[in-house]
Amino acid sequence: MLCMERIRRFLQTNSVQMAAYRYIERYPSCHELLHLQAGKLNSVVFPLKELENYLNPNVDKTTFHIFDPSFDDIKRAEELFKPSSKHEIDFFTSAVRMDHAPLLSQPEVCFIGRSNVGKSSLIKALFSMVPDIGVRVSKTPGHTKKINFFKVGKSFTLVDMPGYGYRAPKDFVEMVEAYLETRENLRKTFLLLDGAVGVQKADMIAVEMCEEFGIPYTFVVTKIDRVQKGELLKQLLQIQKFVKKKTQGCFPQLFLVSSLHFSGIHLLRCFIAHVTGNLYLLNTAIKQQESQE
Ligand SMILES: Nc1nc2c(ncn2[C@@H]2O[C@H](COP(=O)(O)OP(=O)(O)OP(=O)(O)O)[C@@H](O)[C@H]2O)c(=O)[nH]1
Ligand SMILES: [Mg+2]
Hints:
With 293 residues, the protein is an alpha/beta fold. It has helices at 2-13, 16-26, 31-45, 47-52, 71-80, 119-126, 172-182, 203-213, 229-246, 265-275; strands at residues 89-95, 108-113, 147-152, 156-160, 186-194, 217-222, 255-256. The structure holds guanosine-5'-triphosphate and magnesium ion (MG). Residues 119-120, 143-144 line the site of magnesium ion.
């Protein structure tokens, strides 16, 4: 348990490829356990790969690995999320209306979803190498009331949104709709779904906005640490079916994350680096589907 906790901390603070080696250097007594953890490390980085072992071989898995970077690509993407004197990562500003939103030319990605689905926690996990960044999370739904902008050097901006559904700010639709419709440098909208419940009625507001405005979006399945594998797989297949049958602009691959256990965070960082034009993938190709976006 102690070793797992150490690995988790390492994964939060170190690039993924080095994490295992540094771990061995610092905790040689845990060698054996780490051997066991080689697979574990893989499942932390690619949570979907571990899960698909439990699937019936007849299930179509073609959309599972459209974005399938190598460890090298993932490691290079990590550099973008590490602050330095030349690459400051910090909260920039917040806005309650679009005319308050900053005019930024760098590419942007935003995170939307029901209140309490884990948007702010995910952003905090993505920025785990920036300990004082000040992303606020709460057990109480409806915590984030404004559109919060975080600058990642000159590379891109990451935007945390208020949630919709229970205890949403009353001007949510005006605020978020205007943002999604007019933000010219918005490269990707991440729409978060709770792994325990999948697509809910309230999510249709966000899906319809993305479809209507023709903006590229991707589902991120959150809190996967809280759901049993069988149940999670059931939800994933349902979400996939939804994507295939009911959406046009949604990226077909689902991204799974646990902000608590840090699963899927490195892969998502790499995807963000890629979609914002900051990472050219060396060792892999994004398959055809993405070009349909
Ligand atoms: N177990 C577990 N809990 C999580 C995870 N992500 C978030 N949570 C918890 O879910 C609750 C809500 O998290 P937030 O990140 O504040 O959710 P939000 O979507 O930003 O919520 P609003 O700002 O209210 O819209 C908090 O109690 C978090 O600790 C996760 O991956 N695993
Ligand atoms: Mg929040």
